[in-house]
Write a structure and sequence with these properties.
single chain, 362 residues, three-stranded mixed β-sheet, 13 helices, globular
């Protein structure tokens, strides 16, 4: 049997593939456009008998159709997405293309493929769409956490594009009976995350003596989940989830941004002390807040706990310590990402360059 994962060379996707490959011999096909955040270094060592990378775009119907016809996957996990809020504010078009039209194309291709299946193949097929808690908008300090019944109130082009994709997925279940599953997850952190994101950015800036930029007053609250916990939750949803249902995935770890920055500094103070003996916290710098910045996210995980038996394994303190340790002890990976040299892999293996608009160094 085979599963198809889209966006599998990114942060969550690569961690999921590594986690899956460690516990299963089921073949994985990874369809990834290999934009700036898709890093083949994350997966190059996997056995080609159980892992295959297809460099291609989920917006291309022929590419998706060919993969489905050739490999006949029992499941499609859609993790392909433009995901950085800041980028969506200044370049929203790519988010609409990938997150909305890309999901639409996957759904259309999946519907055509699903209609060709019969018997047990049809019964076990699933389309799992991985989304975000940002579709629900922002919470006030005293508000209860987001549940699966929370109304959609996206506040950024990124979250709006993901909300649109979620609605498409729901519509294909209601209209075409496509056996879909949707997950809405809180903020992920852990190894192999592209360093434009909050936690790896602060880790590396602290270690290299740069400023630690914090938007506004730094009191924006996020619910943090260690990425391998998210991977476990996705597996549970794929195996036990009820088609047509959505499942919220949280880490039970609400933290404001300033406290996260201070926690990172405390760890690095022990691992890589500053020459002057001061805490890395003196590098924290408050910068102008971004437009439409949501104040608080929080996830109620009661449904996935009761229905599917998932609760996070790692506390925020444990996960953060492991994350800092990984970045400090993988300087070659970090340097290749920061310099952009990991992109040379595409030239070597595929004779293909990334789109110029995506070839940006940090």
């Amino acid at each position: 049997m085979t599963i198809l994962i889209t966006g599998g060379a990114g942060f969550i996707g690569s961690n999921f593939i590594l986690d899956w490959a460690a516990g299963s011999n089921e073949k994985i096909i990874n369809l990834d456009k290999m934009t700036y955040a898709g890093n083949p270094d994350n997966l190059f060592h996997l056995n080609p008998e159980v892992y295959e990378l297809v460099v291609g775009d989920i917006c291309d119907p022929e590419t998706v159709k060919n993969i489905l016809e050739k490999h006949k996957p029992r499941a499609i996990l859609n993790l392909a997405a433009e995901s950085h809020v800041d980028r969506s504010i200044y370049a929203p078009a790519e988010f609409m293309t990938t997150n909305v039209m890309g999901t639409f194309n996957l759904l259309e291709s999946s519907r055509a493929y699903y209609d060709t299946l019969t018997g047990p193949q049809k019964d076990r097929f699933r389309f799992l769409h991985v989304s975000t808690d940002e579709v629900f908008g922002s919470l006030e300090p005293a508000d209860p956490p987001f549940s699966e019944e929370s109304p959609y109130r996206p506040n950024s082009p990124y979250s709006a594009s993901k909300a649109a994709a979620d609605h498409l997925v729901r519509a294909y279940f209601k209209t075409y009976n496509l056996p879909v599953l949707t997950t809405n997850c809180s903020n992920n952190y852990g190894p192999r995350q592209f360093p434009e994101k909050f936690i790896p950015l602060l880790i590396l800036n602290a270690a290299y003596g740069h400023s630690l930029p914090i938007y506004g007053d730094g009191l924006q609250v996020r619910d943090w989940i260690y990425v391998t916990d998210h991977c476990t939750a996705i597996r549970n949803v794929l195996q036990f989830g009820q088609p047509g249902e959505t499942y919220n995935i949280g880490g039970q770890a609400e933290k404001n941004n300033l406290d996260v920055a201070r926690a990172i500094c405390q760890i690095i103070d022990q691992e890589r002390p500053r020459d002057d003996g001061q805490s890395h916290a003196i590098q924290i710098t408050h910068v102008t807040d971004r437009p439409g910045h949501d104040r608080r996210y929080a996830i109620c995980g009661i449904k996935i706990d009761r229905k599917l038996g998932f609760t996070p394994r790692w506390s925020f303190e444990e996960g953060l310590a492991m994350t800092v340790d990984w970045y400090l002890n993988n300087p070659k990976w970090v340097e290749r990402v920061r310099s952009g040299t990991y992109r040379e892999w595409l030239d070597l293996h595929y004779g293909q360059k990334a789109p110029e608009s995506q070839e940006k160094k940090l």
